[in-house]
């Protein structure tokens, strides 16, 4: 590991330096006033961990399974659309790093590399995240392709009836159709390292949708089609339809209310992800860590409770476990790693998480992460 990289925040700074502003803002930002994005980070920080001494904490145990699959640490790489804009063939690189390190990787519907690209790149099972489109045939086809590629879980994202408005993206021209104004051209031109590297990308648009729509050759038309395809009629029956279509492990992502968590159990979800989409959808939603305990209590052991939103350090993971999560997902942290140094940067992020987890466990006096419980975490007012 590069000794100058001591935390995820160094990877974030490197990503900021390497990426054109339009791409960094897309990765970093949240919806509207970014209230929820800030809450995710602030509320995790505001939790304190109880220190315990006089316990043998040698030989810590960090591994577990996530929906039946081994994970070296309680963390999966979450789905992030357009990751392939941060590094050439970025999704394949992220997936390779996940395999090398030993954690699950989840590919987004809105990726640049396709399901088949990632399957070829790693030869190992990965998770596929599905956004439901209005056109049922496209959904069916994506589900079949995920099955053919031996995806080991389907992650159905529930919180995209409409797309959250990220003001920076709209101003930067990242909204659809993409705009290439003078400002963007200057921005991109002043990042030659990124520009030259992107020449190695195999694809230039949404890899999973290229074969599904007629306008696929025209990036602007494809983007417009995608924007118009998010399905506001998506309801519980739609989830049941997906459950019938997919017989492998099904994970429902975007649960923020105990009632929805109970419905997820009723439709047969193998896991849920307590998530507000990293603050990119409903601005003013509570932080995901603040709703986690009620949701974990509502479902008990009837489904696996996963968590994301604001994870930047190993101690954030311990806090989420203490609040009732079985394991976590990382969105931006691993993406900063990818944007900074490709697969090496993702590996660096994962190793940082692992070391920080070990250090944190030693100081809270826990040898096995499965023994982290509510007693480890306490609210610390004023932080
Ligand atoms: C750049 C970016 C793109 C994202 N794209 C998707 C996506 O395509 N599908 C999805 O379900 N979630 C998507 N998310 C949300 C993440 O999966 C995850 O819920 C969120 O990033 C967690 O918060 P964190 O970034 O603080 O870890 C995206 C997040 C980011 C930052």
Walkthrough of the structure:
The protein has 383 residues and is α/β, with parallel strands linked by helices. The chain has a single domain (8-379), classed as Alpha-Beta Barrel (TIM Barrel), CATH 3.20.20. Helices cover 44% and strands 11% of the residues. It has helices spanning 8-18, 21-28, 35-46, 90-101, 115-122, 136-148, 167-172, 182-189, 192-198, 219-229, 236-245, 258-266, 288-299, 314-322, 332-364; strands at residues 47-49, 64-66, 69-71, 75-77, 106-107, 127-130, 153-157, 250-255, 271-274, 304-307, 327-330, 377-379. It has an 8-stranded parallel beta sheet with strand order 4-11-10-9-8-7-6-5. Helix 13 (288-299) links the parallel strand 9 and strand 10. Helix 1 (8-18) packs antiparallel against helix 15 (332-364), helix 4 crosses helix 5 (115-122) and helix 12 packs across helix 13 (288-299). The longest helix is centred in the C-terminal third of the chain and has 33 residues, at 332-364. The two termini are 31 Å apart. The model has no long low-confidence stretch (mean pLDDT 94). It binds flavin mononucleotide. The site of flavin mononucleotide has 25 residues, from helix 2 and helix 15. Glyoxylate binds at residues 26, 131, 166, 277, 280. The active site is at residue 277. This is Alpha-hydroxy-acid oxidizing protein. One of its GO terms (molecular function) is L-lactate dehydrogenase (NAD+) activity. Keywords: Flavoprotein, FMN, Oxidoreductase.
């Amino acid at each position: 590991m590069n000794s100058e990289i001591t935390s995820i925040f160094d990877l974030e700074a490197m990503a900021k330096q390497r990426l054109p502003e339009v791409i960094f803002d897309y990765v970093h930002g949240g919806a509207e006033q970014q209230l929820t994005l800030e809450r995710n980070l602030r509320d995790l920080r505001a939790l304190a961990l109880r220190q315990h001494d006089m316990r043998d904490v040698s030989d810590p145990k960090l591994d577990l399974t996530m929906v039946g699959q081994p994970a070296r640490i309680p963390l999966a790489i979450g789905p992030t659309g357009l990751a392939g804009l941060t590094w050439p063939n970025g999704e394949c690189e992220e997936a390779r790093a996940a395999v090398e390190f030993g954690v699950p990787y989840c590919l987004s519907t809105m990726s640049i590399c396709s399901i088949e690209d990632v399957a070829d790149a790693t030869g190992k099972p990965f998770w596929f995240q599905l956004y439901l489109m209005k056109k049922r045939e496209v959904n069916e086809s994506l589900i079949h392709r995920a099955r053919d590629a031996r995806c080991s879980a389907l992650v159905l994202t529930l919180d995209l009836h409409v797309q959250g408005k990220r003001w920076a993206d709209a101003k930067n021209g990242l909204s659809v159709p993409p705009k290439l104004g003078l400002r963007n051209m200057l921005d991109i031109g002043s990042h030659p390292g990124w520009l030259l590297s992107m020449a190695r990308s195999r694809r230039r648009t949404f890899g999973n949708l290229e074969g599904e729509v007629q306008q696929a050759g025209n990036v602007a038309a494809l983007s417009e089609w995608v924007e118009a395809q998010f399905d506001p009629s998506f309801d519980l029956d739609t989830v049941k339809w997906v459950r019938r279509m997919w017989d492998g492990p099904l994970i429902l992502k975007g649960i923020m209310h105990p009632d929805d968590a109970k419905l997820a159990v009723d439709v047969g979800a193998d896991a849920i992800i307590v998530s507000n989409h990293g603050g990119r959808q409903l601005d003013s939603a509570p932080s995901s860590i603040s709703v986690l305990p009620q949701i974990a209590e509502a479902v008990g052991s009837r489904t696996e409770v996963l968590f994301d939103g604001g994870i930047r350090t190993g101690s954030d993971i311990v806090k989420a476990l203490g609040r009732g999560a079985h394991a976590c997902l990382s969105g931006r942290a691993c993406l900063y790693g990818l944007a900074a140094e490709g697969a090496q940067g993702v590996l660096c992020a994962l190793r940082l998480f692992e070391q920080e987890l070990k250090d944190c466990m030693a100081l809270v006096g826990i040898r096995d992460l499965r023994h982290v419980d509510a007693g480890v975490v306490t609210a610390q007012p004023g932080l």
